[in-house]
Automatic annotation (TrEMBL):
UniProt keyword terms in alphabetical order: Membrane, Transmembrane, Transmembrane helix
TM ranges: 20-41
Top-level taxon in the UniProt lineage: Bacteria
Domain TadE-like residue range list: 13-55
Keyword Transmembrane helix in annotation: yes
Name of this protein: Pilus assembly protein
Native source species: Candidatus Nephthysia bennettiae
Phylogenetic lineage: Bacteria, Bacillati, Candidatus Dormiibacterota, Candidatus Dormibacteria, Candidatus Dormibacterales
Pfam families: TadE
Amino acid sequence: MPPISRSTVGQRGQTTVEFALVAILLFVMLFAIFDFGVFFAGRITATNAARSAARYAATHPTAWSNASSPASNTIQGRLISGAVPAAISNDDTHVTISYIVPGVGAGTTCGHYSAASNSFVAATGYTQATCVVPGSLIQVHVHYIYTLASPALSALGLSPTSLTVDGSAAELEER
């Protein structure tokens, strides 16, 4: 057996300690990659759900519903069924359906659907009959909060505990 030199006696656990220190950073990075991957997947899903609802609204511009679980033959039903992984509530805070009359520049928002009152809310100078017409732009906007899956990032103070996810799409009313 070769003699143990004094230089290697104090280094027996060095590799294990170095691995333990580096492994913590590695796992934090892996959790961050996972969290942001799920966040971006949720954002894409919300945008696609809004696009699906806007396409449906183009041919069914007044198919509204304020039910918590709306039927699939409503604008909100198309939106919520398309956003399965994202928990989107059918209320004015999370879902906005706006109607925009084309004009000079970006156009004018002439009204929106309110789930709270279950009715169309027209802007000043407009009615539902003058706003919800073929050629008007229907914009569906989704907003929800994504809570991070890994608490390790929050515990280390490296990121917030939740992120805002928005998705929107617009289509011309066809009827």
